[in-house]
Amino acid sequence: MAVQTIPARIRWAVDFMEVQPNDHILEIGCGPGAAAELICSRLETGKLFAIDRSESGVDRTRRRCAKYVEAGRLTVRQIDLATLRVPVKRLTKVFAFNVNLFWVRDCADEVALLHERVLPGGSVYLFFDATRPDQVPTMVEKASAALQTAGFRVSVVEQKAPAVVGIIGKR
């Protein structure tokens, strides 16, 4: 299998999260598995639960990260956040990159579900490509409001190169 690169924007976002070896992380929208690969490489006793609505995204993540699936560090499921009913109550972090759910429609139920699953002191990290500067204020406003309504304390970070905006909700 050819070596797959990890885009700089994904690398920056995962670095920003400061993944710890014992973290329990939910990734929403795992897509091709680049973030999952990077996150799992930093876990020892922790685990990543990656979900995606797309069958092809799930398949690509499983193939790319097969060694982590086999090692028990990664579980990948085809499901959307709204129907996630896994009794995970010990998440330290939630990660999503370019998941439009958080800014294009009402996501109160999904964010409330995250608030139930994230441990006190844990965080939700929502990152978006900021290559469309006209969309950034709307992304920040809507995603921040959704997190605040659910009880998260919100902060915003921006990275110029690569162009990424992050909305962090701390529980």
From TrEMBL:
Gene3D superfamilies in alphabetical order: Vaccinia Virus protein VP39
InterPro entries membership: Methyltransf_25, SAM-dependent_MTases_sf
Keyword Methyltransferase: yes
Gene Ontology terms for molecular function: methyltransferase activity
SUPFAM superfamilies in UniProt: S-adenosyl-L-methionine-dependent methyltransferases
Domain named Methyltransferase: residues: 25-122
GO biological process: methylation
Any Pfam family matching the protein: Methyltransf_25
Protein name in the entry: Class I SAM-dependent methyltransferase
Keywords: Methyltransferase, Transferase
